[in-house]
Amino acid sequence: MIDLEHARSRDASDPLREFRNRFIIADPDQCYLDGNSLGRLPAATAEAVQRMTLDGWGGDLVTGWGGWIDMAQRVGDTLGLSVLGAAAGQVLITDTTSVNLYRLALAAIKDRPGRSTIVVDEANFPTDRYILQGIAADLGMRLVTIPNESPDVAECERITPEILAAYLDDDVALVCVQIVNYRSGARQDVPALTATARDHGAYVLWDASHAVGSIDLRFDEWGVDIAVGCTYKYCNSGPGAPAWMYVRSDLHDTLRTPIDGWFGQKDQFTMGPTFERASGMRGFQIASPSIVGLTAVEESMSMIAEAGMDRIEAKCAEGTSFMIDLFDQWLEPLGFGLDTPRSAEHRGGHLSLTHPEAAQISVAMRQIANVIPDYRKPNTIRVAVAPLYTSFEEMYIGLERTADLVSSGRHRDVAVIEGGVT
Ligand SMILES: Cc1ncc(COP(=O)(O)O)c(C=O)c1O
């Protein structure tokens, strides 16, 4: 039987416990279990953004661009080294995950002329599926979907090399999957799937949005070609913070993305008549980056680098195991299911708890219990450990309140507003 004392003893021996004090925690009673959606605000990031705004924008005005002009690459290098296992020169902080996914998908497809199939999975994030549907329609390609939401096909949506291999042939140009699935939290075997697709001559475009900052990614070592992800979840860089793209260095000259903008131009300020692409990741940049956004990413990255991704991944594994133990103790007897792999190496930082009344429960958790999860249709409540600030005590109290709420039936008193943010 796990009790509060046990949770507190886990916090006392947590090597990352001091980092929680470096975040803004406006409501100490609230159990925030949604760092997989939006990370908390680090106090140092708030200060850095204020400094940049007042001194940089307010003080330096346009002369600030002298230092900002290469910032998307500089902070990209920092992010690559801190969280992707990527040597310098392969990451650019830019635009949104969706835009980056579109651009790299098209670049990969163009580099496989004569091939007309794209493979995606049913459980992939909506924006990825919609973008690929659009590309397939525009280019007259075939979009093949792996039906991994079915438990007959995959366990917790997890795609094994054997499952993927059945969808590959010499017509496949591109495979697009997530590293950690947004709903089930299942973690894919990146090197194995990348190699399986490569054996058939196809690129894999990885969406690392739920993996970056939660698991210790080793892109260079794993042979990743191209990947995209966001910075507002486990990277704590703020709502709508700029995203990133990774392109392995030996593909820089091969891959051409749509939209050649002036920031990708070789001699940007000669303002020449035609586009000549800059070398390296700069050639992938379209236009003026958000310096406020980049400042937030840079500051948040320095905290993650200090903590170390090895310790962060270990806390994700321990925190999710702890919540699985609490699920067994309290939630399963109340009719909840667990749709996340039980083995830690097959998951990231969040759990997917299923329940037939999940929509009402998740609203009631927020409104009645002061516990913040999120809800994903049709029946999933996600709860996450964000290793730098989620304490074992917070996870314990959050799930205890959830169990009390559901056993009392009070969740049935709340109204679910269809179509709102969940
Ligand atoms: C896996 C995944 N991919 C893509 C996105 C969309 O990102 P953006 O809105 O930055 O394009 C999200 C957003 O949560 C996501 O979870």
Description:
This protein is 38% helix and 12% strand. The protein is of the alpha/beta class and 422 residues long. It has a seven-stranded mixed sheet, with helices on both faces. The protein has a four-stranded antiparallel sheet with strand order 9-10-13-12, with helices on one face. Strands 1-11 form a two-stranded parallel ribbon. The two termini are 32 Å apart. Pyridoxal-5'-phosphate (PLP) binds next to helix 5 and helix 6. Residues 96-98, 125, 127-128, 178, 182, 207, 209-210, 230, 243 line the site of pyridoxal-5'-phosphate.
Number of strands: 13
- Order of SSEs: HEHHHEHEHEHEHEHEEHHEEHEEEH
- Rg calc: 22 Å
Q: Given the C-alpha coordinates, what overall shape results?
A: globular
CATH superfamily of the largest domain: Type I PLP-dependent aspartate aminotransferase-like (Major domain)
Query: What is the CA–CA distance across the termini?
Result: 32 Å
| Overall SS class | alpha/beta
Which CATH first-tier class of the largest domain would you pick?
Answer: Alpha Beta
Strand order of the largest sheet: 2-8-7-6-5-3-4
Strand content: 5-15%
- Uncertain runs with pLDDT below 50, 5 residues or more? none
The CATH topology assignment of the largest domain is Aspartate Aminotransferase, domain 2
Which percent bin holds the helix content?
25-40%
List each distinct ligand once: pyridoxal-5'-phosphate
What is the residue-mean pLDDT, rounded to a whole number?
A: 97
Major beta sheet, specifics? Answer: 7 strands, mixed
Number of helical regions: 13
CATH architecture of the largest domain: 3-Layer(aba) Sandwich
List the domain count as a whole number. Answer: 2
